[in-house]
Amino acid sequence: MRTGGVRLDLLIIGAGPAGLSAADxxxxxxxxxxxxxxxxxxxxxxxxxxxxxxxxxxNELELREGALRPCRxxxxxxxxxxxYVRFALxxxxxxxxxxxxxxxxxxxxxxxxxxxSRGRYEAARILVCTGAMARPRRLNVPGEDLPKVHHRFVxxxxxxxxxVLVVGGGNSAAEAALFLSEGGARPTFAIWPSxxxxxxxxxxxxxxxxxxxxxxxxxxxxxRLFLFSEVEEIGETDVKIxxxxxxxHTLPNAAVFVLIGSDADLRLLRDVGVRVEKSGLTEVPSxxxxxxxxxxxxxxxxxxxxxxxHIKEAIAVPRRVIPLxxxxxxxxx
Length: 333
Ligand SMILES: Cc1cc2nc3c(=O)[nH]c(=O)nc-3n(C[C@H](O)[C@H](O)[C@H](O)COP(=O)(O)OP(=O)(O)OC[C@H]3O[C@@H](n4cnc5c(N)ncnc54)[C@H](O)[C@@H]3O)c2cc1C
Fold this sequence. Notes:
Blueprint: E1 7-13, H1 17-28, E2 33-36, H2 43-46, H3 58-61, H4 77-90, E3 95-96, E4 101-106, E5 112-116, E6 120-128, E7 135-136, E8 149-150, E9 163-167, H5 171-182, E10 186-191, H6 193-197, H7 208-219, E11 224-234, E12 238-243, E13 248-252, E14 255-258, E15 262-263, H8 267-271, E16 276-279, E17 282-285, E18 299-301, H9 311-332
Helix pairs in contact: 1-9, 5-7
The structure holds flavin-adenine dinucleotide.
Flavin-adenine dinucleotide (FAD) binds next to helix 1, helix 2 and helix 9.
């Protein structure tokens, strides 16, 4: 089975925690594998806000026990990113970065043809770990395409002494509002009343170690809390927004952060015939909960776009699945 000269046992798509964990096990199983990553190693972590302290504990995030040693109790973005990159280098994992998978096709008989931005590969098995960050959700209001509107928050420094609006109900929005407030911007945090009142961690409430300092910023007048119902329109220098009672307000504004979650891009999977199903607000691929194999034989999924969303499971699932893949390949010989 050879096309374009490259024949693999396993092609892994995405070099996040799931893809790196999969590559690590594939190497130990002696598989001919390759990871193809459209961005950088751990690209999603690379795009976390600069200086963010993550919420998971070290043992949930590290690829080898004891290998991630943060200065404080929990690692920062920088410590986590450097752990993943160092791990890939030290284990000499086969990762092609800045190469995007554009299409997966089934070959007659067994195996797949994978087309990328740089070439094509044949592989007996595919593990898709492309995460769920591809499509930031939008408000779909006039003005959302203005350059001052961002769907990702990086750092507060460009916004010092500027009026900024953060829209969202979860941790990413709350953390951005806090970073901006502590960093010298003049932020307004627009959140639905139900999200602000939510104190249930199982319902995705704002983590208490973010909420505490956030409430202090509000109490001390550096951050304005705006319980809203709807953003109406974003203009060059202002924003029209309705409060929870439905009254319209015009706020001066230099930048808007729309941080209301993101969805996976499931086109690669759909196009090769993988079924998808509803899961809460989003869609996930259908797969066997034991083997993580989809309805397309030989095509597996792991990580953030499955029902096992956090990094802990993104790392754990490939440790169970890759040995099964290796077994099935040995059985096929
Ligand atoms: C600000 C922030 C903080 C977070 N904090 C935590 C935390 O503390 N704990 C926790 O458990 N989770 C946290 N998360 C969620 C966590 O980042 C994800 O659960 C984790 O990244 C999932 O790993 P993954 O390998 O499934 O996907 P990802 O890490 O998203 O990796 C997917 C990779 O696939 C690549 N890719 C996508 N499409 C293609 C393609 N067509 N071709 C090639 N490559 C492709 C992407 O570039 C990406 O590198 C946080 C998320 C954010 C945004």
